[in-house]
Amino acid sequence: MNAYDKTDVVIVGSGFGGSIPAYHLAAGGAKVTVLERGPWLETKEFEHDYLLGSSYTRAFDFVVGDGMSVLGGNCVGGGSVVYFAAMPRAPKFVFERHGSIGRRMWPSALTRDTLEPWYDRVSDSLPVSTQDWNDVSYAGGLWAALCDHSGRTANPAPVAVDNDRCVNCNFMMAGCRFDAKRSLLTNYLPAALAHGAKIRPLHEVQRIERIDDGDYRVHFNIVDDEDYRVQSGSGTIDAKVVIIAAGAGATPVILQRSESALGTMPHAVGRYFSGNGERLNTAIINEERVREVLGLSREDGKVYEANHIGKGPTVANWDKLDGSLPEYERYSLEQLYFPPGLGTILAQVPGGDEPRWFGPQKKEILKQWASWLTIFLMTEDDNEGVFGAPPPTGNAYRISQQMLGRGPLKYDPTPNTLHGWSLADAECKEILEKDGLAKVAPWTNDVVGAYTVHPLASCRIGDDPETSALHPNHELRNHPGIFVTDSASVPGALTVNPAMTIAALAERSVPGIVRALQARGVDVTYGAPAPDGSITGRRAVSKLSLVAGS
Amino acid sequence: MDSDEQVKVSTLEAYADTIVPGEKRFPDDHAIAGASAGPGAVVAGALELLHTEATGVTVGLPYLAQSLNDHAKVYAKEHDLTLDETLPSFVALSFVDRTALVRQLTAPGHPEKDGWVSLALFCNMSFDSAAHKHTAEAIAEGHPGLLAMGYTAPDEDGLWRFPKFSYRRELAQLHPDTTPSGSPA
Ligand SMILES: Cc1cc2nc3c(=O)[nH]c(=O)nc-3n(C[C@H](O)[C@H](O)[C@H](O)COP(=O)(O)OP(=O)(O)OC[C@H]3O[C@@H](n4cnc5c(N)ncnc54)[C@H](O)[C@@H]3O)c2cc1C
């Protein structure tokens, strides 16, 4: 027996959904253990390197499904370590969506207005800041100029990046070497550790079982720190409350695998998965036309040729985030940078002959890589993803030493989703190809299916037991003491980047979890400030804490 | 016919060359079809990357090569082609036929799609990210893929920094419903 075999709370996964409750519960006096399947990387280990085995592959999990592939984080800090840190709040209409179920899919207690104070907490904590035109990269500036030229607006995106530290290396997907990205490693996690939380990396949770007097036993395997296919040893830890925050691609699989021990899962576990309606388009920029028509040029005299310079997305077009438009016709178009290796293969030759994703013409567009402009479309999909039978361990059969695996997710886009994609594609084309400024084509879905970095809704909150797996307070239906606080709990596509909303929901879930712990005899309170001690956000939510989770 | 190892290597080279084609290394280079000027995936190190155990495909390579040649035989029969029997069947196909066959094998619904897509993925990565080498070293050595894509060398400490990164101009009107947090309303 070691000291941690029994604790108050076990948290599975250390991304937004795991780290936020880890901090608040530890600060409130609970004994918290976080189990994370990935390694614990330090700042100096974040490399500028595409070598297999560098942080570019160690920190990632890429799971190919049937019709949909999911890219996520795999390390302490989860998706926050690899994400691009664009942190917009979701527009009002999103919370009113009906989606595939023909009724409001969000719990009645949740609207943009009721979530706003929790967004404020996150904004304080990471912190999130607005950007001005001096902060936007060449790629973002070019996207803004293209939008403007075709009569549209464009916004610098709010980000969790410290622009004074950022060197615009565009390697942020491999983890930020300069600590400019405000990942959870720089705020909630150190604060949780300071309050006594334990983090155990390379611990992959497999299943949960119920033991005497309503407590839970969490079963994990120990993962090799270099070859994630190798698992050496296993163990268990008991807790009064379990919080599952393994990400929308992994959380439902843990619950499915636990079904034999825990009893029947709600129908919605492993169903209603959403890819956030994502799609990518690659434009090949005509440098000369950009100089002539848009009058742009860089300080060094070049026009653009700056695909590789910058910091992920900096500018988004929000003209179609218009609540008066019908569902499936609302979307945002965001400039993005995607490094080679993980995505370049899916870019298609605009207007070329088949095959468009490999062959001589594709090689020609690779040579123009510096002049690529990637646009990220976030549309409203139909929550049509379903998870099949769980693999023996984790959420995928691992193929490569790191990163690559094959998983049980099946996603067959409905006509609604296809309609949204095609409208957004057409809009992109209209903006980018005007006056010969660029040639654009969407990424192919034929190779690894659709591609999402924003998996959502595989275990969602809601009022309706048929179509939601969780009560509005994030507790698993019919399984008191198990909470899900990550992207899996978000009911549907958000039309913008989701981390801000995932984080706000996680913040909102904490008072309810505190009450569940108190009911189980744990001496814990709610009310910690932001991780850096600031309390602006706390003022608003202290009044609301009694409402949340009730 | 060559040894098993040579058959495997030239078959996989021909596959890699179909994904990112290049120019022949020597006049009777059969594996590389010569469909594109300049080096392609093979010269960029596709075989080296495929033989890096971390990919998880290495042990399957002999099987994939053999299976590719079997598919090529069937393809040739279906299209009434006579193949040069001194070459592995896939190598004996023209570039156009290799391309058509790879399209079939990687198409949605093909029962072996996963294997052929993984192979294509790593062939492409050898060219676009040189995943078998440290990026800075690959650039210093003149890696053909990274150079073709316009990569520049990092600073002396092996890290990239771009002090000039922005047009630093207001380039569009903000959306009228932007909230004080900088988010959509
Ligand atoms: C390349 C990339 C760029 C992105 N950019 C943005 C962006 O700019 N803005 C934005 O809003 N969002 C972005 N995202 C999405 C964002 O990262 C996710 O939405 C967010 O991280 C989800 O939070 P989460 O807590 O649900 O899961 P995650 O952050 O994915 O955390 C889940 C954690 O659980 C661990 N885990 C999984 N299974 C197990 C198990 N069985 N046992 C133990 N641990 C397990 C994982 O390793 C991971 O660390 C990006 C994502 C990627 C991949």
Key phrases:
heterodimer, A: 550 residues, alpha/beta, FAD/NAD(P)-binding domain, seven-stranded mixed beta sheet, 12 helices, 19 strands, globular, B: 185 residues, mainly alpha, 9 helices, elongated, binds flavin-adenine dinucleotide
Mean pLDDT of chain B, nearest integer? 97
Question: What distance lies between the first and last C-alpha atoms of chain A, to the nearest angstrom?
Answer: 37 Å
Rg of Cα set of chain A: 22 Å
Helix content of chain B: 40-55%
Strand content of chain A: 15-25%
What does this 3D model show about the protein?
- The complex is a heterodimer of chains A (550) and B (185).
- Chain A has 550 residues and is an alpha/beta fold.
- Chain A is 23% helix and 19% strand.
- Chain A has 12 helices and 19 strands.
- Chain A has helices at residues 16-27, 55-58, 79-82, 112-125, 138-149, 188-194, 251-262, 287-294, 360-366, 415-433, 499-519, 536-544; strands spanning 6-12, 32-35, 60-66, 68-73, 155-156, 198-200, 203-210, 216-223, 231-244, 278-285, 315-317, 332-336, 372-378, 386-387, 397-398, 403-410, 438-442, 450-452, 482-484.
- Mean pLDDT of chain A is 95; it is low at 544-550.
- Chain B contains 9 helices and no strands.
- The longest helix of chain B has 18 residues, at 61-78.
- The interface between A and B is large, with 89 and 69 residues.
- Bound molecules: flavin-adenine dinucleotide.
Task: Draw up the topology in text.
The complex is a heterodimer of chains A (about 550) and B (about 180).
Chain A: E1 6-12, H1 16-27, E2 32-35, H2 55-58, E3 60-66, E4 68-73, H3 79-82, H4 112-125, H5 138-149, E5 155-156, H6 188-194, E6 198-200, E7 203-210, E8 216-223, E9 231-244, H7 251-262, E10 278-285, H8 287-294, E11 315-317, E12 332-336, H9 360-366, E13 372-378, E14 386-387, E15 397-398, E16 403-410, H10 415-433, E17 438-442, E18 450-452, E19 482-484, H11 499-519, H12 536-544
Parallel strand pairs in A: 1-2, 1-9, 2-6, 3-16, 4-18, 9-19
Antiparallel strand pairs in A: 3-4, 5-11, 7-8, 8-9, 10-13, 10-17, 11-12, 12-13, 14-16, 15-16
Chain B: H1 4-19, H2 41-44, H3 46-50, H4 61-78, H5 89-92, H6 95-105, H7 113-128, H8 135-140, H9 144-148
Helix pairs in contact in B: 1-4, 1-6, 1-7
Bound molecules: flavin-adenine dinucleotide (FAD).
Flavin-adenine dinucleotide binds near residues 72, 74, 79, 83 and 502 of chain A.
Pfam family, one (chain B): DUF5987
Pfam families (chain A): GMC_oxred_C (PF05199), GMC_oxred_N (PF00732)
Organism (chain A): Amycolatopsis umgeniensis
